[in-house]
Amino acid sequence: MPTFDYAPAPESRSVVDLSPSYGLFINGEFTEGTGSTFKTVSPATEEVLAEVTEASAADVDAAVAAARAAYTRVWSRMSGTDRGKYLYRIARILQERAREFAVLETLDNGKPIRESRDVDVPLAAAHFFYHAGWADKLDFAGLGTDPRPHGVVGQVIPWNFPLLMLAWKIAPALATGNTVVLKPAETTPLSALLFAEVCQQADLPPGVVNIVTGAGPTGQALVEHGDVDKVAFTGSTGVGKAIARSIAGTRKKATLELGGKAANIVYDDAPVDQAVEGIVNGIFFNQGHVCCAGSRLLVQESIAEEVEARLKRRLETLRVGDPLDKNTDVGAINSREQLDRITELAAAGEAEGAERWSPRCELPSKGFWFAPTVFTGVSQTHRIAQEEIFGPVLSVLTFRTPAEAVAKANNTPYGLSAGVWSEKGSLILWTADRLRAGVVWANTFNKFDPTSPFGGYKESGYGREGGRHGLEAYVRTGA
Ligand code: TAP
User: Fold this and answer.
1) Which of 10, 69, 138, 361 has a 20 to 30 A CA-CA distance from 351?
2) What architecture is the 263-449 domain classified under in CATH?
3) Ligand 1 mean position to 17 CA, how many Å?
4) Distance between CA atoms of 208 and 71, rounded to whole angstroms?
């Protein structure tokens, strides 16, 4: 229980200049588009923030044509040093306009301002800085002789880290000499449209970056477009599989960053207080809308009761509510659709016999909200142990031996990330070696850095983003 209340500390909305409506960003300009429009709302209040254009197949065609022309005439001919200068410029503008981006992201996504301000925006700038540094050094990146760009890249991203996923996609593509057409998620288009303004401000040659807003059909038109050379997708495993099928047999290259169901393993010699912080960060950061979230806690049986008690005590202190309040720890669920999915899976957990618990917290009456939830007594066959919930819901399972922990951790169709908590380095390495996961964190969780490759095994997709490995996906070598 909190021992005292915090006074509200709301961040000001006045730094954001919202337009009532937005067009598409094609060939360096905002254009009206030929499709219909849709509304984007604040998930915390259901207030309509703006009308956004739904790009039609003809609009996607125009964006790809602009990207092709920019690739052929300008970007593929420019030296890496000059491309790097543009990327540095974009990175610096993102830093200068950081507060504006953070507030806009929080308004459109529902995530706490503390996270958009301290994680999303600084990391997005860091991705541009990092890739700016690579632009003139690609020959020395160990990518093979004469690494060259693919051409036009079609990029489709989800709603959980809108600006950050954009940075993960656009920065390496531009650094390696590709041009892009990017489709942000339907529920979170605004930071991508503000990024389009940044491209104008940086004097980026027209057509190098194009932003087409819309829903699934717009994404489909983009990835299936005949003049797209490479597809980069982050989103659900279902859509990822459909994309892989649709481009099979074509010349298109693809990277797919898909879902996850990470195990966070806590051994009995772990520093329990730190582990509890890591468990909380692992699943309640960004409302659990994190592909690599530590949604399955595997705790050694001998300390399970103690960990559970300390975890519940800690969760009683989490502040759920207004995402623009600087004290808020857990914000709004991104959409009604996502809230319905979380609600349905949590109900399935109860129906299958797991024990459900949430801290006492008052949820706002408007908007989309779900209290932080912990399920104990979960067995491996339960849906909440198998399916990705993508919300603030933790499933707790126990184990007795390291071999059992590894077997349970790997018992999932996914393989994106995992966590291991122990004071023994040898046990951490033994465990990490056996986990089928792209990223394994030791005595920490949800740490991201542009220098570190990120990506999955199994149904979590293929390809890596970040680091030298991430560049590989954006270049071709040989004849
Ligand atoms: P999806 O429904 O797959 O949507 C992702 C993006 O694809 C959105 O822009 C979406 O548009 C678009 N899209 C939908 N149908 C499409 C189609 N047939 N062809 C092309 N594009 C299409 O996922 P989501 O609900 O936004 O995101 C949650 C999922 O993403 C979770 O499973 C999560 O694990 C995964 N995710 C993975 C990672 C990494 S790095 N592995 C990172 C973040 C999220 P609309 O927005 O209009 O639907």
Assistant:
1) 361
2) 3-Layer(aba) Sandwich (3.40)
3) 28
4) 7
